[in-house]
Design goal:
The chain is an alpha+beta fold and about 325 residues long. About 30% of the residues lie in helices and about 25% in strands. The protein has eight helices and 15 strands. The chain starts with 13 loop residues before the first strand and ends with a helix. About 5% of the residues have low confidence.
Length: about 325
């Protein structure tokens, strides 16, 4: 099921190095309680530290129910979802949550001058990286699909969504997991949880840290590798990566990846392998990872200079690691 297209490489992008992600045995007070489930088209793990094990297990079940609730709103393929109904013009009224996420997506469309575009669905569906044997679409079909993409053809007022073009279709895969991670974290904090890690298939959000003063150690995956190219200390922070290795295929000796340029209809080709964003809000980190990848190293670094308390890690084709200003000092990177 193509529920949310981004980051389906199970546990791929980021690994939480300190953890053995398994539930504690026994009952009563728990060192940590962990639950894994397949949601949002990926294997996700949520771990809560301390507290009562039985209560934690109830919390974790509720967290995954939240994930499923939002998937049922944002999916492009579930026929009952807000996005499916919008795309098929069955309604123009959406939930508060969908309206909020659409509005945030349009904000990043404006900030990036369309390089981040939540109306990418015609192109995303055409390329179909989820196919058993993906292939480069016909050039004429790409041009037609690219012409249908344009965030300016979409507007949101309250809970009402308006399309300026009959061809406009929405895909929230570039931002939805971050939004969902934030909502899960909100629920855990409201429930009194002080330390936890929410890992939605690579979108990692840390509540608290390893201790009161030290963050969790989160690894940034080496592109096309099984190890980490760098690690970061994350305390009350989210760590989100966009990379060419997440979903790609080769044709005619050339690699094609899923981060598509709305203006050309083809994958971006800018000497980048991945971009990782670290900051408080996972939704913003999710969108910014795609925005910075689309902008490329130079313009991406310049953008991050304007983003207070958000940091970026770029990995180029030569596997060199590039940090935005202050990142190495602020986050205790090791690589």
């Amino acid at each position: 099921m193509k529920a949310i297209r981004k980051r389906i490489f199970a546990f791929a992008l980021l690994s939480v190095l300190l953890l053995q992600l398994c539930a504690c045995g026994g009952s009563g007070t728990a060192e940590k309680t962990s639950k894994t489930d397949f949601v949002l088209d990926t294997s996700a793990t949520i771990t809560v530290y301390g507290g009562n094990e039985a209560e934690n297990e109830t919390l974790l079940t509720a967290c995954f129910n939240l994930c499923k609730k939002y998937e049922a709103l944002f999916s492009t393929t579930m026929e009952t979802s807000d996005i499916y109904k919008l795309n098929h013009r069955e309604t123009n009224i959406v939930s508060d949550e969908t309206a909020a996420l659409l509005t945030r997506g349009l904000y990043y469309g404006t900030c990036s001058d369309g390089k981040f575009d939540i109306t990418i669905e015609p192109l995303a569906a055409l390329w179909n990286f989820d196919a058993e044997s993906p292939k480069v679409p016909d050039k004429a079909a790409i041009q037609k699909a690219a012409a249908a993409v344009g965030y300016k053809n979409l507007s949101v007022s309250g809970n009402t969504v308006t399309f300026a073009s009959d061809q406009t279709q929405i895909d929230l895969g570039g931002i939805a997991k971050g939004y969902i991670a934030d909502r899960v974290a909100d629920y855990l904090r409201e429930s009194g949880v002080k330390r936890a890690i929410v890992n939605l298939g690579g979108n990692v959000l840390c509540i608290g840290g390893k201790t009161d003063t030290e963050g969790f150690t989160v690894g940034i995956q080496r592109p096309f590798g099984a190890d980490s190219i760098a690690t970061v200390k994350a305390k009350d922070l989210s760590v989100v990566t966009s990379g060419v290795y997440e979903r790609c295929f080769y044709e005619g000796g050339k690699r094609y990846h899923h981060i598509l340029d709305p203006s050309t209809g083809y994958p971006y080709n800018n000497n980048l392998l991945s971009v990782t964003i670290i900051g408080k809000n996972s939704c913003d980190c999710d969108a910014l990872s795609t925005v910075c990848f689309a902008l490329g190293l130079g313009k991406g670094l310049k953008l991050m200079e304007k983003m207070n308390n958000y940091y970026a890690v770029f990995v180029t084709e030569d596997y060199k690691v590039h940090f935005s200003n202050g990142a190495e000092t602020a986050l205790s990177f090791q690589y």
